[in-house]
Specification:
It is a single chain. The chain is α/β, with parallel strands linked by helices and 193 residues long. It has one domain: Rossmann fold (3-Layer(aba) Sandwich). Helices cover 48% and strands 16% of the residues. It contains 8 helices and 7 strands; from the N terminus they run E-H-E-H-E-H-E-H-E-H-E-H-E-H-H. Strands 4-3-2-1-5-6-7 form a 7-stranded parallel beta sheet, sandwiched between helices. Strand 6, helix 6 and strand 7 form a beta-alpha-beta unit. Helix 1 packs parallel to helix 2. The chain is globular and about 45 Å long.
């Protein structure tokens, strides 16, 4: 399975976030999954990719040319896809992903979360969307969205489209459980023929 991890590129964050990203990369590979990431070698983006490769995993980095030009590309990616801009980058990441895992991050990470969350709410995909938030960074966001629901701005079951977790294993267990539910069994495939 290709798991798209959205995470921070800021180099001003606490080391615990970078360590969390490294743990995610390691566990992804050890569970037999591949990584799709933002293709940068810095901060959490770099940590998740390096750890995934170190544990034997396959990495796909997707990065816009503008970031390659300032020399932050993860040149060690198994596949490094250079796009024309940020919108194209997100489209490629989306197209390559079987599931989405959101780590603590800034407004770029939130924008990615909201796009996948919105398209899932609209029924445009059923792929798993899991947020891994051990330290409660997104608690105010959850409160905000809950208030939006109370005021009628979001659809019913808005929180059914995303799983909120606090440990790496819990996050990956959720992704695998949803994917297993959506993947037809051998018997179902045989019946369809």
């Amino acid at each position: 399975m290709f798991v798209c991890v959205f995470c921070a590129s800021s180099q001003k964050i606490d080391q615990k976030y970078v360590d969390l990203a490294a743990e995610v990369g390691d566990r992804l590979a050890k569970r037999g999954h591949s990584l799709v990431s933002g293709g940068a070698r810095v901060s959490c983006m770099g940590a998740v990719a390096r750890a995934c490769r170190a544990a034997g995993g396959h990495t796909v980095g997707v990065i816009p040319q503008a970031l390659v030009d300032i020399e932050v590309a993860d040149e060690d990616s198994d596949e490094l896809i250079v796009t024309g801009d940020m919108r194209e980058r997100k489209g490629v990441m989306d197209a390559r992903a079987d599931a989405f895992l959101v780590l603590p991050g800034g407004i770029g990470t939130m924008e990615e979360l909201f796009e996948i969350w919105t398209t899932r709410m609209l029924g445009l995909h059923e792929r798993p969307l899991v947020v891994l938030d051990p330290w409660g960074l997104y608690d105010p966001l959850r409160e905000l969205v809950s208030g939006m629901y109370d005021q009628g701005f979001t659809r019913p079951h808005v929180f059914d489209a995303v799983s909120w977790t606090t440990t790496t294993d819990e996050a990956l267990d959720r992704i695998e459980a949803v994917t297993a539910r959506l993947t037809p069994s051998a018997e179902e495939l045989a019946e369809a023929e």
